[in-house]
Amino acid sequence: MTTDPVSAVFAALADPTRRAILARLATGEATVNELAEPFPISVQAISKHLAVLERAGLIVRTREAQWRRCRLDPTPLRILAEWVDQYRRLWDDRYDTLDDYLRELKEISHDRDP
């Protein structure tokens, strides 16, 4: 099943454990064991979370001898930010229109006051 990149990133970010893993990786690379340390779940469960993040393109996993290291890849977050930004601009425009309307109402109200 192929998912578009935005949907894959949203799905990956829907889980708080995965968001916490990304927050940790934002500070630098880490091994799977280092990522699993603060969570009350198994390393295998963390590996499943990492697989979701990797499929979404949010992390890159490498193997060095027996160590598996992970690092954040911010590219999908930029794509997501651009997607969200188009809606932010839409809402900004709507708020500007609302501000203009409220100013007009206020002016009309002041004109009618004795």
From TrEMBL:
Domain HTH arsR-type positions: 1-92
SUPFAM superfamilies: Winged helix' DNA-binding domain (SSF46785)
InterPro entries linked: ArsR-like_HTH, HTH_ArsR_DNA-bd_dom, WH-like_DNA-bd_sf, WH_DNA-bd_sf
Signal sequence segment: none
A Pfam family matched in the record: HTH_20
Superkingdom, natural source: Bacteria
Name this protein carries in UniProt: Winged helix-turn-helix transcriptional regulator
Taxonomic source organism: Micromonospora parastrephiae
